[in-house]
């Protein structure tokens, strides 16, 4: 695979993103997962919590400003549930699962599974086949490719904008470093000149030099 194909494959991996994870949630503990997501991206998820008598598990999804995007208290055990939201801005999003065990019980750890999808993978195209448009499977696939192409163009535009911002930041930083270096040199030269004249006056006052 050449470098061009590898880059395209990597970009597709970023656009069509699926994460699947499973962990054990200890009694009266919480587990949080964080991820940075671009603006205007559809995010869907499916989660399931194993059964444990008398224990409750809550979950909540927040952004970095503390805004709640999705939450549910007392998740039904052994039942697969779903959530979805659309990001408004580029931000870091956090999903937390919290276990609650009554004081009189010891509790047991519970298995939590989470599958998240974002971008093109999160969209549902199955409903298009049964809609009034009566799209054929091949037309649905073409719709997927169209959306994927649009997402690639948007990602390239975003990457180009980020590159321009980084270049501007680097140029600004280099200019500031240059000015600071020149200022430091003048300060050192001024200090050295003042020191020479000061020592000269001092030695003359002590009549050590003419």
Can you summarize this structure?
The chain has 210 residues and is α+β, with helices and mostly antiparallel strands.
Please explain how this structure is put together.
The chain has 210 residues and is an alpha+beta fold. The chain has 3 helices and 8 strands, in the order αββββββββαα. β4 (56-62) and β5 form a beta hairpin. The protein starts with a helix and ends in a 5-residue tail after the last helix.
Question: Which labels suit this protein?
Answer:
210 residues, alpha+beta, Jelly Rolls, four-stranded antiparallel beta sheet, 8 strands, 41% helix, 30% strand
Choose one word for the global shape.
Answer: elongated
Count every helix, treating DSSP H or I runs of 4 or more residues as helices: 3
Uncertain runs: 1-15
**What is the structural class?**
alpha+beta
Order of helices and strands: HEEEEEEEEHH
- The neighbouring-strand order within the major sheet is 1-8-3-6
Please estimate the helix content. 40-55%
How far do the termini sit from each other? 81 Å
CATH architecture descriptor of the domain at 3-123: Sandwich
The biggest beta sheet, please? Answer: 4 strands, antiparallel
Please indicate the percent range of residues in DSSP E strands (runs of 2 or more).
25-35%
Over all CA atoms, what is the radius of gyration? 30 Å
Give the mean pLDDT: 82
For this structure, what is the CATH class of the domain at 3-123?
Mainly Beta
CATH fold label of the domain at 3-123: Jelly Rolls
Question: How many β-strands, per DSSP?
Answer: 8
